[in-house]
Design goal:
- The protein is α+β, with helices and mostly antiparallel strands.
- It has three domains: 118 residues, Rossmann fold (3-Layer(aba) Sandwich), CATH 3.40.50.20; 149 residues, ATP-grasp fold, B domain (D-amino Acid Aminotransferase, Chain A, domain 1); 67 residues, Dna Ligase, domain 1 (2-Layer Sandwich), CATH 3.30.1490.20.
- Helices cover 36% and strands 22% of the residues.
- The chain binds adenosine-5'-diphosphate (ADP) and magnesium ion (MG).
Length: 366
């Protein structure tokens, strides 16, 4: 007798996007691409947007309205919610999210990529895509990530951690430290931002205080590094306890002296060369370093690990992004595609990894 067909239920995936960070804009573009590419025969999608003001709003309109925040007005209407009413819209969203099998946080930066929202998902007990609380928090804080990378013996750029209160009290303090350690030009960046927000170059001692105060608008801590003349290579990592790396790609900005926000997210302003045009041996070296960096912060699911490739072939780790961009132009999905993993298949894998990690973690509880 033929076995009765058991129809497997579609998985309900909560795609959360937007957020209060400086990377809200790119998160919206990433989310619309993810929604477009999630296999609708396998998944029912529940979209939840977070406005710049921090309202969490379930949104059932077209994904094409997510970029450029065209979803916001519709979502307020749909939920019969007005910002002035003083409700807590997180309650509204959580009621919807709790009905889902898995969460895909398509959030970058502050509150989305830094462990905050991951802690909420842990409390809800729902599997979620990507790194857990610690890895997210560590990856987001460039100063603490450097500590972990240093302990793991990873080659990286020298650095000084600059604190806002010290810089305000004694603006010359870091000028003296830079002169003693590595000199000029140097690079200054907020510890907890992404997408080149607040990043600047100081050519001389005179320029450092202004560059530093610009970075310190975005965080109370900034990193000062010697300027590295280099090409930029990015490597995608996927997996949980046994991660692997896709072949790395190179980013070339066609507009400015460094890879900044607009050249990253405004169409046609950067070029991705995949695989990176470096010797095969260097590609392998970078892949191994990327996996090591991922493990150094206890990564899970995915990360994009970014490197500097110097003219003499030296590779230095720059940073890890635990929730990299997912737009059509973004390096992470492009790297997967170049290695034969389609965008949709990549999403399937990331969702499967979320369940795998959730199951493994559950064993820790009685
Ligand atoms: N030490 C450095 N030397 C030269 N360029 C740098 C240095 N640090 C950062 N940059 C440039 O600034 C960009 C942004 O810095 P990054 O550390 O990647 O921060 P973000 O999190 O904002 O992407 C890099 O992609 C690179 O182009
Ligand atoms: Mg970067």
């Amino acid at each position: 007798m033929p076995k009765p067909q058991i129809e497997s239920r579609k998985l309900k995936i909560a795609v959360i996007f937007g957020g209060r960070s400086t990377e809200h804009r790119v998160s919206c573009v990433s989310a619309s691409c993810i929604i477009k590419n999630l296999d609708k025969t396998k998944y029912d999608i529940v979209a939840v947007g977070i406005t710049y003001q921090g309202d969490w709003l379930p949104y059932s309109g077209p994904a094409s309205n997510i970029p450029g925040d065209k979803w916001v007005e519709e979502a307020y209407r749909e939920n019969d919610f007005t910002p002035a009413a003083g409700h807590n819209s997180l309650d509204l969203a959580l009621a919807v999210i709790q009905q889902c099998d898995c969460i895909f946080p398509v959030l970058h930066g502050y509150n989305g990529e830094d462990g905050t929202v991951q802690g909420l998902f842990e409390l809800l007990g729902i599997p979620y895509v990507g790194c857990g609380v610690f890895a997210s928090a560590c990856g987001m804080d460039k100063a603490f990530a450097k500590v972990q990378f240093g302990k793991a013996g990873l080659p990286q750029v020298d650095y000084i951690v600059a604190y806002k209160d010290v810089a305000e009290r004694d603006p010359g303090a870091y000028v003296r430290e830079v002169e003693a350690r590595f000199g000029f030009p140097c690079f200054v960046k907020p510890a907890g931002c992404g997408s080149s927000v607040g990043v600047g170059k100081a050519m001389s001692a005179e320029e450092l205080p202004a560059a530093l105060s610009e970075s310190l608008k975005y965080d109370k801590k900034a990193l000062i590094e010697p300027y590295v003349e280099c090409r930029e290579i990015e490597c995608g990592v996927i997996g949980n306890s046994d991660p692997s790396a896709f072949s790395p790609g190179e980013v070339r900005s066609t507009v400015t002296y460094f890879y900044d926000y607009d050249s990253k997210y405004v169409d046609g302003m950067n070029e991705c060369i995949i695989p990176a045009a470096v010797p095969p041996e260097a590609l392998e070296r970078i892949k191994a370093l990327a996996v090591k960096a991922f493990k150094a912060i206890d990564g899970a699911g995915l990360s994009r690990v970014d490197f500097f490739y110097k003219p003499d072939g030296t590779v230095l780790l720059n940073e890890i992004n635990t929730l990299p961009g997912f737009t059509e132009q973004s390096m992470y999905p492009k790297l997967a595609i170049s290695d034969g993993v389609s965008y949709s298949e990549l999403l399937d894998r990331l969702i499967a990894l979320a369940f795998e990690r959730h199951d493994a973690d559950k064993r820790c509880f009685r």
